[in-house]
Each structure stands twice: as structure tokens, then as C-alpha cells.
């Protein structure tokens, strides 16, 4: 009998050991402890006095969960993501869920651009174009944590000269701050030692119902403060045009259900984008006090208002989600189970000099500001 005592003692000790404290969204911080390419990873939890919670991992600077109250006061997790940091690694899932994107968000035509007479060639990882900084962009790198407390976290990404073909040693920071009034404030800044291009954004996938396995975002109501958009071709590349949204299904100047026109049978733009996957030219003129976009889920009553000083916002309606990716709580994310609202400069701006510049030079500081403000609308 004596030989069984150590086994029994181990069981007793495991039963008596304190359980790891889970976040409101059910995440276990221990599942984010580890590392990638020799750099340590962890989960950081932000909370405010109103009870809102935001969880961030420094792997890719990703927002993992956002818990906000619905119209009945029940908290819901309104973004897609994974339960473990390893699930974000590119060898396991090549997704942009919640990531701080860099060095250049969105697409660069044929992975090429010319700056000061020098042509730079980048990886072609999306229909012949460079998307979101290339296959090893910042969403797949570990950010260094510079500051972290109960309401904010500041992350640093040091990108070497030649990183995915981009010139210059760049130091970029992203700071997430949870405000007392249930807003997630995101501030970006970057400096370089050589002329380069920078365009950062966050790639959170929102489902304001908190039930992405069963609730399609086609039912949600979207408004975009934009009277123009940038059309795309069949490879999702901007054509260089800026068109009025009038007489197009891309007109969201007045609130409407995302799904109302998304299946329009003859709209070439919807066919090219496989739904909405377009950049809207904002009418806010860089004024962060003016709403850029508003998303409302009638089922939960949760409303998201986006503010930014950027000239554009990319709206992507989860057109390539197909149930093959299994996220938090074992939920398979189906077609159109999320919508992304990515504040940005326009896609392929380095090759379109008529558009706002994305060039960053030594001695200058790149800045960008986005606020995701949550509220309840009955």
C-alpha cells in the first residue's frame, strides 16, 4: 500500500492548490506565458471602475478580449480571438485577430514602392501584393512591454532596416488605454533613422452580440462618416480612383444593416471585395472629435463608435471566415461572424502620390490615434 501514497499525496496537493485566476472573459493568463523566437509573452488585463475589461497580449500587440456590458448589464466579449498565445503563432493560425499591424497596414501593389528614387521590393503575400507588412509582419512578432498598469499598456516594436524589405530602423510604440467611460484609446507613434513608410492600425474583429458562433454581423447596423471610397480591382487593390458612395451599395452615410445590400447581384465592387473590404475616405478631416463610424448590434444593444485622426477606415466584413478557425471557448468562427474597422491611411498610398503621404523621415515622429468607444443603445 505504501507505494501508492506518493500518488495519492500528489492528487491531494493538486486538489488543494489555488486555481489560476481567470479573466472576466474566461482567459487563463498562464496560457499566454511562454515565448516566441526567444522573446517572452504574457497576457495583460486592463479594467476600469465601470467594470469593462480589455485583455492584451504582447505577441503581435493583440487585443484578445473586450468585455463590455449589454443593454441588460450583462457583460459580453465582443472581439474574436484565441484562448492560448500559441494559437496566434503563424505556424498554427495565420490570422490578424486583434493585432497591432505594421509596418504598413493593408496592401502595397505588387509589393513594390519607390522612395527618393530607390525602388523597394517587399514580400508578395496576398494576390501578388504585400499585405499588412508581409508574412512576418508585426502581428507575428513579440512587442516589448515598456509600461503596464491597471488601465494602460505601452508596447514597443523595434523593426530593423530591411525588415520584410522595408527601409530604416524603426522604433514603433502602441499604447492601449482603457478610459473611465468605456473607451479603448489606441495611440501609435514611430521614429526612423532612414526615410521609410509607416501606416499602423488595429485589426480587431468585432461581433457586438458576443455570440459569434450564432450571430451574423449582417444583422448589425453600420454608419460611416464618408461620402467617398476607394474602389478595388479583383485582387483587392485600390485602383487610384476616389468615388462618391452615392448610388453604390457602399453608401453608409445613413445607418443601415450591413447585410441589406451586401448581396447586391450586379455591384462589381462587392464582387471584387467578396463583400465589403474597402477603404472609405472619411469626411472628418482628421478631427478625432467627430465620429468616423458607428456600429450597433440591436440584439445586445451594444454600440461602438470609432474616432480617429486618420483620413480613412477599412471596413472588412469577415468575408473569408468559413468556420475552419476555432477560437475562444471552442467556437468555430463562421462566415461574416465579425466586422473590422481599421483606421488608416489609404491602401497603396506609397504608389499614389496624390493621396495623403505615409512617408516618415529621420527627425520626424509618426503618430496615429484611434478610439473605440462603447456604449448601450436601447
Portion in helices: under 10%
Please mark out the parts with pLDDT under 50 across 5 or more consecutive residues, or reply none.
1-19
For this structure, the CATH topology is: Beta-galactosidase, Chain A, domain 5
Q: Alpha-carbon distance between the termini?
A: 65 Å
Any idea what the radius of gyration is?
A: 21 Å
Query: Which strand order spans the largest sheet, edge to edge or round the barrel?
Result: 12-13-14-15-29-25-24-19-22
Beta-strand portion reads: 35-45%
Round the mean pLDDT to the nearest integer and report it: 95
CATH architecture classification: Distorted Sandwich
- Which outline best applies? globular
Please write the CATH class name. Answer: Mainly Beta
- Total number of helical segments? 2
Description:
Helix content is 5%, strand content 36%. With 378 residues, it is mainly beta. It has a single domain, classed as Beta-galactosidase, Chain A, domain 5, CATH 2.70.98. It has a 9-stranded antiparallel β-sheet with strand order 12-13-14-15-29-25-24-19-22, with no helix packed on it. Strands 18-27-26-23-20-21 form a 6-stranded antiparallel β-sheet, with no helix packed on it. Strands 3-4-5-6 form a 4-stranded antiparallel β-sheet, with no helix packed on it. The radius of gyration is 21 Å and the shape is globular. The N and C termini lie far apart (65 Å). The N terminus is likely disordered.
Amino acid at each position: 500500500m505504501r507505494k501508492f501514497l506518493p500518488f495519492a499525496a500528489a492528487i491531494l496537493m493538486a486538489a488543494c492548490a489555488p486555481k489560476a485566476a481567470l479573466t472576466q472573459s474566461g482567459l487563463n493568463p498562464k496560457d499566454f506565458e511562454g515565448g516566441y523566437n526567444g522573446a517572452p509573452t504574457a497576457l495583460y488585463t486592463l479594467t476600469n471602475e465601470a467594470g469593462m475589461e480589455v485583455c492584451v497580449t504582447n505577441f503581435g500587440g493583440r487585443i484578445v478580449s473586450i468585455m463590455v456590458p449589454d443593454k441588460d448589464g450583462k457583460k459580453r466579449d465582443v472581439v474574436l480571438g484565441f484562448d492560448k498565445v500559441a494559437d496566434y503563432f503563424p505556424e498554427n493560425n495565420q490570422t490578424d485577430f486583434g493585432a497591432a499591424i505594421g509596418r504598413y497596414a493593408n496592401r502595397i501593389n505588387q509589393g513594390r514602392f519607390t522612395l527618393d528614387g530607390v525602388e523597394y521590393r517587399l514580400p508578395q503575400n496576398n494576390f501578388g501584393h504585400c499585405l499588412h507588412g508581409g508574412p512576418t509582419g508585426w502581428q507575428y512578432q513579440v512587442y516589448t512591454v515598456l509600461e503596464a498598469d491597471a488601465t494602460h499598456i505601452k508596447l514597443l516594436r523595434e523593426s530593423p532596416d530591411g525588415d520584410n524589405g522595408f527601409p530604416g530602423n524603426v522604433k514603433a510604440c502602441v499604447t492601449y488605454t482603457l478610459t473611465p467611460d468605456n473607451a479603448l484609446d489606441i495611440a501609435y507613434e514611430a521614429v526612423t533613422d532612414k526615410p521609410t513608410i509607416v501606416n499602423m492600425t488595429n485589426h480587431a474583429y468585432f461581433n457586438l452580440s458576443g455570440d459569434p458562433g450564432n450571430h451574423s454581423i449582417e444583422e448589425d447596423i453600420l454608419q460611416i462618416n464618408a461620402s467617398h471610397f476607394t474602389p478595388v480591382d479583383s485582387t483587392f487593390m485600390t485602383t487610384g480612383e476616389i468615388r462618391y458612395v452615392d448610388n453604390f451599395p457602399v453608401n453608409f452615410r445613413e445607418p443601415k444593416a450591413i447585410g441589406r445590400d451586401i448581396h447586391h447581384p450586379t455591384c462589381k465592387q462587392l464582387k471584387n471585395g467578396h463583400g465589403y473590404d474597402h477603404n472609405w475616405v472619411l469626411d472628418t478631416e482628421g478631427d478625432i472629435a467627430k465620429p468616423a463610424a458607428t456600429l450597433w448590434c440591436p440584439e445586445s444593444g451594444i454600440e461602438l463608435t470609432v474616432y480617429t485622426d486618420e483620413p480613412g477606415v477599412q471596413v472588412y466584413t469577415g468575408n473569408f471566415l468559413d468556420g475552419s478557425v476555432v477560437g475562444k471557448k471552442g467556437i468555430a468562427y463562421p462566415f461574416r461572424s465579425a466586422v473590422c474597422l481599421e483606421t488608416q491611411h489609404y491602401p497603396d498610398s506609397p504608389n499614389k502620390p496624390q493621396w495623403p503621404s505615409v512617408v516618415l523621415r529621420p527627425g520626424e515622429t509618426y503618430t496615429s490615434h484611434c478610439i473605440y468607444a462603447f456604449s448601450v443603445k436601447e
